[in-house]
Amino acid sequence: MIDVIYSLVDITQRFNQLVFDPFYIRNLNMTSMTMKSFYDRIYSIDNQVLSRICENILPRISHQINELIVEQYSMERVLHTINYPQLYSLTLMDFSEEVRFNNLTNNTIVRKLLNEQITCLTIDVKDKPREPSSETLYVIFTLILSLCKQLNKLSFCQFDNRSTFRTFDSSSTNFKSSTLTELKINVETFDDCLYLLDGRFNCLSRLIINIEIISSTSGTIDNKKKLPKLKHFSLTSYPHTYLYDNLIIPLLRRMINLEELILDLSIIRSNKNYIDGIQLYDDILIYMPRLNKFAFNIYTNVDKKNVGILFSSNEDIQRSFRRKEYGSVASYIEIFTRENQHKCHSYSLPYEFKSGIFVNVQFLMDIINKEPQRAKQKSLSLIKFSYLIYLDLQGAHADYAEQFLIDKYCHLPCLLNLNIDYESLVLATNNFTNDATRLTCSKLTSLRINEPFVPPKNFYQYFPLL
What we know:
The protein is of the alpha/beta class. The chain has helices at 2-8, 13-19, 22-25, 47-61, 75-80, 97-106, 108-116, 135-147, 190-196, 244-253, 277-283, 314-320, 398-405, 422-429, 435-442, 459-462; strands at 27-29, 32-37, 40-44, 67-71, 89-95, 120-125, 153-157, 182-187, 206-211, 232-241, 260-270, 293-303, 328-336, 341-349, 363-364, 383-384, 390-392, 410-411, 417-419, 446-448. It has two domains: 2-354; 355-466, no CATH class. The chain is built from 16 helices and 20 strands. Strand 2 and strand 3 (40-44) form a beta hairpin.
């Protein structure tokens, strides 16, 4: 948006009327993103462009701006020289912990703005992937809660699933808010989720939460008290959990007035059938009489240790979702005889999740199949994943690496990150000589291989952007 304003302003009076129309300038994005890889994104603006905007454009439109997006290097010039009397929404993109902490503690202009005007705040946490949470993140979160007296909506996480998680100190007296109604956040543990729902946010009606891993809890936090004010709940957790029945179901049953529920889960069960529509209704939905929207993406992985289990067929799964609460649902079942595992994936349609198996997804992290393809269906039409940035094939057989990396079978124009076993990569690329996989590999800017290896001489010619 800011690039458009910069290029069109003061060309003609007619262009100025269009550019400065309140409809277009009330939500102003002062960033421009450059993506090197899924985890390496730079939000910035050219210094010369920024100077002209701050000197010639912002003074003419600042009184009409309601929502503003800034990054750390331009924020001081954007906020310190101009007043924004109508500003109520602020997004801080790609700020390091140190810069963000300094702004919250020492920047009087930012503190005044947050204290007196901002009701909607979005924080994009800038961290490298897979780093442990820092104490600074918790301090920053607590500072925001204590400083923003008018805050209604808070998003405190990384965009595009570049997840950063944190664990909270439940004993802190500042870790609370009486005004917050909506919260989007990534956390480390299920206990963190329970902390957020223990009453310290007594007006919270909408919670969107991504839990790094759902495992055992301390057992000291109440998971029985009803949550009558919660209207919208979204729960995402990509790692497998064994505690769906013991932790997740009791939590959801507390949400007696819920109107919208979104679940994105991978569940492991032993000696139990797949999760289907009948179980979801009996275990969860029957306790939510006001529910009017339910979207889900559920993987059930079953270790068949008891040969007496009678597993549902895919037709049985489809029939179980006939209730009106579900709408359209798709499902499929996979059986891995060598590992003695049964898997079922069921999901609501239209597909609304950022990971998965469809063309609008940005990353694929669920291709887990070590068995070879029974028939390499190379005669099928070309598959296109137009927006896919991140592909994880470490849990897949080499046949799937070949299927995805050969451009004749799969078109991946935006792919930047690839996780894969070295052996599969060598086979698919024919020891980095296969021209059929060269195009896709030449665009990669990040390649993750867990096991140690010595790159051959032609390796970096095959991956020139690494």
